[in-house]
Design goal:
Elements (H helix, E strand, L loop, with lengths): L9 E5 L6 E5 L5 H13 L3 H8 L3 H9 L1 E3 L5 E3 L4 H11 L3 H7 L12 H7 L1 H9 L3 H17 L6
Antiparallel strand pairs: 1-2, 3-4
Helix pairs in contact: 1-3, 1-5, 2-3, 2-4
Length: 158
Protein backbone atom coordinates (compact mmCIF):
# COMPACT_ATOMS: atom_id res chain seq x y z
CA UNK A 1 0.00 0.00 0.00
CA UNK A 2 1.38 3.41 -0.99
CA UNK A 3 1.01 6.03 1.72
CA UNK A 4 1.16 9.68 0.73
CA UNK A 5 0.99 12.91 2.68
CA UNK A 6 -0.63 16.24 1.94
CA UNK A 7 1.18 18.87 4.02
CA UNK A 8 -0.75 22.02 3.14
CA UNK A 9 -4.27 22.84 2.10
CA UNK A 10 -4.45 25.16 -0.87
CA UNK A 11 -7.62 27.13 -1.47
CA UNK A 12 -8.35 28.86 -4.73
CA UNK A 13 -10.08 32.18 -4.40
CA UNK A 14 -11.04 34.78 -6.94
CA UNK A 15 -8.85 37.86 -6.64
CA UNK A 16 -10.81 41.09 -6.54
CA UNK A 17 -10.77 42.63 -9.99
CA UNK A 18 -8.78 39.75 -11.48
CA UNK A 19 -10.03 37.20 -13.95
CA UNK A 20 -7.96 34.28 -12.67
CA UNK A 21 -7.86 32.13 -9.57
CA UNK A 22 -5.10 33.01 -7.13
CA UNK A 23 -3.64 30.17 -5.06
CA UNK A 24 -3.54 30.94 -1.36
CA UNK A 25 -1.76 28.49 0.94
CA UNK A 26 -3.17 28.44 4.41
CA UNK A 27 -0.75 28.82 7.29
CA UNK A 28 -0.58 25.15 8.15
CA UNK A 29 2.92 24.07 9.14
CA UNK A 30 4.92 21.72 6.92
CA UNK A 31 7.39 20.68 9.56
CA UNK A 32 9.26 18.31 7.26
CA UNK A 33 10.14 21.18 4.93
CA UNK A 34 11.69 23.16 7.78
CA UNK A 35 13.60 20.08 8.98
CA UNK A 36 14.81 19.38 5.45
CA UNK A 37 16.00 22.94 4.86
CA UNK A 38 17.92 22.93 8.16
CA UNK A 39 19.56 19.58 7.34
CA UNK A 40 20.49 20.75 3.83
CA UNK A 41 22.01 23.98 5.14
CA UNK A 42 23.93 22.05 7.80
CA UNK A 43 25.24 19.54 5.23
CA UNK A 44 26.90 22.16 3.05
CA UNK A 45 25.77 20.22 -0.03
CA UNK A 46 23.76 21.57 -2.93
CA UNK A 47 20.20 20.45 -3.41
CA UNK A 48 21.27 18.92 -6.73
CA UNK A 49 23.97 16.82 -5.03
CA UNK A 50 21.59 15.71 -2.27
CA UNK A 51 19.01 14.75 -4.88
CA UNK A 52 21.59 12.76 -6.84
CA UNK A 53 22.78 10.94 -3.72
CA UNK A 54 19.19 10.16 -2.66
CA UNK A 55 18.12 9.08 -6.13
CA UNK A 56 15.43 11.76 -6.49
CA UNK A 57 15.14 14.92 -8.59
CA UNK A 58 16.44 18.30 -7.45
CA UNK A 59 13.02 19.93 -8.01
CA UNK A 60 11.51 17.30 -5.69
CA UNK A 61 13.87 18.43 -2.91
CA UNK A 62 12.78 22.04 -3.42
CA UNK A 63 9.10 21.06 -3.52
CA UNK A 64 9.45 19.02 -0.32
CA UNK A 65 10.99 22.02 1.40
CA UNK A 66 8.05 24.20 0.32
CA UNK A 67 5.41 21.52 0.91
CA UNK A 68 3.86 22.21 -2.48
CA UNK A 69 4.36 21.43 -6.14
CA UNK A 70 3.29 23.16 -9.32
CA UNK A 71 -0.03 22.13 -10.82
CA UNK A 72 0.44 24.44 -13.79
CA UNK A 73 -0.90 27.89 -14.55
CA UNK A 74 0.86 29.28 -11.46
CA UNK A 75 -1.14 27.09 -9.08
CA UNK A 76 0.65 25.29 -6.23
CA UNK A 77 -0.88 22.18 -4.66
CA UNK A 78 0.21 20.06 -1.69
CA UNK A 79 3.16 17.81 -2.37
CA UNK A 80 2.72 14.08 -1.94
CA UNK A 81 5.61 12.00 -0.72
CA UNK A 82 6.29 8.41 0.27
CA UNK A 83 8.16 6.80 3.16
CA UNK A 84 10.84 5.56 0.70
CA UNK A 85 11.56 9.11 -0.48
CA UNK A 86 11.71 10.51 3.06
CA UNK A 87 14.03 7.66 4.17
CA UNK A 88 16.37 8.08 1.17
CA UNK A 89 16.76 11.79 1.85
CA UNK A 90 17.09 11.27 5.61
CA UNK A 91 19.90 8.73 5.10
CA UNK A 92 21.82 11.11 2.82
CA UNK A 93 21.42 14.02 5.26
CA UNK A 94 21.84 11.93 8.42
CA UNK A 95 18.41 12.99 9.68
CA UNK A 96 16.60 10.91 12.33
CA UNK A 97 14.39 8.50 10.40
CA UNK A 98 11.36 8.31 12.71
CA UNK A 99 11.33 12.08 13.25
CA UNK A 100 11.58 12.68 9.48
CA UNK A 101 8.66 10.35 8.75
CA UNK A 102 6.56 11.94 11.49
CA UNK A 103 7.34 15.48 10.31
CA UNK A 104 6.33 14.48 6.77
CA UNK A 105 3.00 13.20 8.09
CA UNK A 106 3.99 9.57 7.55
CA UNK A 107 4.44 8.50 11.16
CA UNK A 108 1.53 6.09 10.91
CA UNK A 109 3.50 4.01 8.39
CA UNK A 110 5.73 2.64 11.15
CA UNK A 111 4.91 1.03 14.51
CA UNK A 112 5.39 3.43 17.44
CA UNK A 113 8.04 1.27 19.13
CA UNK A 114 10.21 0.81 16.01
CA UNK A 115 13.73 2.28 16.38
CA UNK A 116 15.61 4.15 13.64
CA UNK A 117 17.75 1.03 13.11
CA UNK A 118 14.64 -1.10 12.62
CA UNK A 119 13.17 1.51 10.28
CA UNK A 120 16.38 1.45 8.26
CA UNK A 121 16.21 -2.36 8.01
CA UNK A 122 12.56 -2.19 6.93
CA UNK A 123 13.42 0.26 4.17
CA UNK A 124 16.73 -1.42 3.29
CA UNK A 125 15.68 -2.25 -0.30
CA UNK A 126 15.09 1.45 -1.06
CA UNK A 127 18.38 2.40 0.59
CA UNK A 128 20.23 -0.35 -1.28
CA UNK A 129 18.73 0.79 -4.59
CA UNK A 130 19.88 4.33 -3.82
CA UNK A 131 23.42 3.17 -2.99
CA UNK A 132 23.58 0.86 -6.03
CA UNK A 133 22.82 3.82 -8.29
CA UNK A 134 25.74 5.86 -6.93
CA UNK A 135 29.09 6.11 -8.64
CA UNK A 136 31.90 4.26 -6.82
CA UNK A 137 33.96 7.47 -6.61
CA UNK A 138 31.09 9.24 -4.81
CA UNK A 139 30.84 6.41 -2.28
CA UNK A 140 34.60 6.36 -1.69
CA UNK A 141 34.69 10.14 -1.20
CA UNK A 142 31.88 9.89 1.37
CA UNK A 143 33.72 7.13 3.24
CA UNK A 144 36.94 9.16 3.24
CA UNK A 145 35.10 12.19 4.69
CA UNK A 146 33.66 10.03 7.46
CA UNK A 147 37.05 8.54 8.30
CA UNK A 148 38.65 12.00 8.39
CA UNK A 149 35.84 13.32 10.57
CA UNK A 150 36.15 10.46 13.06
CA UNK A 151 39.89 11.01 13.30
CA UNK A 152 39.91 14.79 13.44
CA UNK A 153 36.58 15.83 14.91
CA UNK A 154 35.35 17.24 11.59
CA UNK A 155 31.58 17.07 11.14
CA UNK A 156 30.76 14.45 8.49
CA UNK A 157 28.60 15.39 5.55
CA UNK A 158 26.90 12.43 3.91
Amino acid sequence: MLTVCQPKIVNLRQVSGASHADPVAEDLPWEYGRMLTTAIDRSGKSRREIARLAGVSAPLITNLEAGTRSAGAGVRVPIRTTPDTVIRIAVVLQMPLRRSLEAAGLGETIPPDMTDEEIQRRFRPAIDDMLDALDVDVLLAAIQRRVRSSEGGETPSA
